[in-house]
Every structure is written in structure tokens, then in C-alpha cells.
Amino acid sequence: MSEKVESLGLPMQTRYYYLDNLRAVALLAGVLLHAGLSFCVITAELLPSANAEKSIVFDYWIWLLHTFRMPLFFLIAGFFAHYLVSKKGVKQFLRNRMLRVALPFVIFWPLLFAAFVGLMFYAATHMNVDTPVINMVKFAMEYPDQMEGKEPPLSTTHLWFIYYLSIFSLLAALCCLLIKKGERIYDWVVQPWVLLLVLPVFITGVMTQHSIPHPAPESFIPSLKAIAFYGAFYFVGWVFFVRQNLVDVIAKFWPYLAVVSLIVALLFCFLLPPNSVPLEQAMAFVGKAPELTAVHFALSVSAGVLACYLSFLCLWAAFRFANKNNALLRYLSDGSYWVYIVHLPIVFALQYYFHDKDLPLISEFFIISAVTLGTGYLSYALLVRRTPIGWLLNGRKKKVRSAVDEDCPQ
């Protein structure tokens, strides 16, 4: 790649601290999202560890966060991907992605999947957990013949994001080999009308093919809808690396983006279904596009606008207020990849434990979040940071760090 980096006065040797910090926030926000998911009304029948008590308040903030957290993550991932290609070339980029992204999936997915299955069976046999999913597990254990042929497909679990990062890495490398010049496309993408109008319209079109809130694409069979949705943000991030004036574009429009996002967020919360989605209904409609009713279209528009505008606002806010480095931020950023990989079994175990406990929901949420984050970072400090696992996920630590850590996981 020979494109000139049009930065905000930032030379190639300047570290992008705000993107490091924002990426870590996106990952760690996922821990809070999963910790609160058991208290949501909409997914009460779909989550094996759903709490006996629920509150629609959790649905509001969790599903709002869900609209833009992973789009933002993939936008940042696209930025760093183009950085690696520009600095190392396509071959070394692929080698880095296979080592930092694909290999961790191969190593950790079997362990995590076994942990999830083990926790479900333990909850079904040794705990007082009464959820549709766990009850189905109990039925399958008691009447295995009646469940023959009805086994759920294997899931990539919460590591689906690594799975799709691997796919996008291959697609990006292929495009680099086939498309030699991209300046016109890059210039077009960073036009305000493209970022603020065309992109939300495209994302809205994709969202109409999903139920809202949209499910994570956890199947091992790649979803074209997921590739279109997250790939669009990955591509915007890819362009962002060579057209860093994108932050200037966002800065000019941030009041408009903030006001529109607030209005749309209120509409989104108002339109969210107030009842739980039945397990049988969810299983029957897996992979199928929902009926395009007026409410579903309005939810799709809301989700599309929020995915774009809130991602851009977070990018601008991080550049404005979090473009700094210190030991604590560096440590949180370095450990976020590991914490996110291992957090969900810890969350599930705690949610099973608190399933029928008589505590305020907010107390249970904070306990689950604090214990999960504490366990994750403690294990990172003792077992990962200076070990081969840490070298695999983040690369070896260097006394002098480069502009952007070429071993960054995303």
C-alpha cells in the first residue's frame, strides 16, 4: 500500500492512543452487557442463565449499547488492519491476523464451549435454575430419545467477533491484491453525505432482515447479513486510516449527531417489544427474515441510525477526550482482549448462582460485573501478561512502543 496518510497533523510515528482506549472500552462494555443480559425482559426465555426477576430498564440500556458497540469495534479493527497492511504488507498482515486472531479462536473456542456445556449441565442437575433453556436440558437428559435429531448446532459463542475478523482479514488481503488504487473510493466514503446518509440507509436495509434487537451471528456458517453489516464498518475503518480527516468531518456535525441520536434512542426504546420472545418462536425463525411491519421498519431505521451515529460520536469523543496514555489505561487496554475472551463463563456461573437470590437486581449486576472484571484482570496479571499466552494475544512487550502496536489483536 502506498496511499498517503492524510492525518490531523499526526505523523505515522504517533500512537493512536484514543483508538487503543476506545477499543478496550468497546470490549469491556461487552462484559457489562453480558452481565446485565440475565435481567432483560426480551431475552428472558432465550438465555439459559436468565434471572428469575427482570427489569425493562436493563433492556433499554443494553439494547442501545448493542446497536453500536460491535459496529464501533469493527470500525476500529478496519483502521488497524489497514495500518498493518501499509506498514508490513499483505503477507505479513495475514500472518499477524492468523497468529493474533485465528489461532486464539482455535485454541480457546473448544475450552470455552466445554465450559458453557459443563455449566449448563451443572445448573440443570445441581442448581435451582428454572429457565426454558435449562428445562430443555433437563428434559433432554431425562428423555434423550425424544431429543434425537434436535440437537442445537455448534456455536462460535461470544468469539464470533474473532471468527468474523478472520474472514474480514482474508477479504481485505484479497482486495489489496486485486484492487491497486482506491483513492477515489476513499475520497467518496469520507464525504459527509455518504457517512451520515448513505451508510445509515445501507445499514437500515441490512437491519430489516434481522429481528430487533439483532442476534449475534454465532453460527459457523458465515452470514452474508453479518458480513454486510459489520463489513461496512470494517471498510469505513479501513478508509479512515488513509483519510483521517474523517474525525474532522464528524467534529463539524457532532451536535446534529448527538441530537438525532438522542431522539432516535428514545424512539428505539419506546418501540422495543415489552414481552419476552418465546424460545420456540426464536428457534423457528433462526436465519429467517422477520415480517416487515411498520414497527419493525421503524426499529430497523432506529438501529441503523444509532449504529452509525453513536459509533461516530464515540470516535470523536475518544479523539477529543481520551487521546492520552498512562500506565493504567495501557494496562486496561492490553488486558481487555484476554478479559473479553474468558469473561462469559464467569458471567454465566455467577448468573446461575444469583438466579433465585433475593437481592436487588442492581446489586446482583454490580457484583457479577465486578467479580468478572476482577477475575479477568487478576488472571491476566498472574497467568497471561508475561507468558506465551500474552505474547500470542498482544505480542511481546517492548520498552519502546511503535505508533500502533503491530501485534494488536484487532
Automatic annotation (TrEMBL):
This protein's UniProt keywords: Membrane, Transmembrane, Transmembrane helix
Transmembrane segments: 21-48, 60-81, 101-123, 160-179, 186-208, 220-241, 253-273, 293-316, 337-355, 361-383
Cited PANTHER family: BLR4337 PROTEIN, MDO-LIKE PROTEIN
Superkingdom of the source species: Bacteria
Domain Acyltransferase: 16-379
Lineage: Bacteria, Pseudomonadati, Pseudomonadota, Gammaproteobacteria, Cellvibrionales
Official protein name in the record: Glucans biosynthesis protein C
GO molecular function, one term: acyltransferase activity, transferring groups other than amino-acyl groups
A matching Pfam family: Acyl_transf_3
